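look at this record:
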Amino acid sequence: MNIDGLQVEFELREDRLLVTASGTVSYQPAYSLLEQALDTAKREHVSLILVDTLVVKGTLTTEDRYDLGLALAAYVALGARVKMAFVGKPTAGTGVMIAQNGGAIIEMFSTREDAMNWLDTRR
């Protein structure tokens, strides 16, 4: 699936949703990816989400990362019970920290293996 230049694949695997992105990132495609991942997880009754952005080019501004973190926190505030692991560049950590402060169960990882292991640990 193409989201404004960002190629995104969604794969349901047992009890989790795997999302893999490639291409060049900007705010709107990143927001759409997050929204579609959360909506797909809800529709499929999956609470574990892994988003792999390791091969994505470009970076988001600090403000964009902050806004994405707020968006995820707002989704959780509406009652979403998801555990989300992001695999990507450390700069994305700002959004992760904002989402955590808003109550989201989310962590940032540099490898998919570490992210999968963390998802396998129960809350």
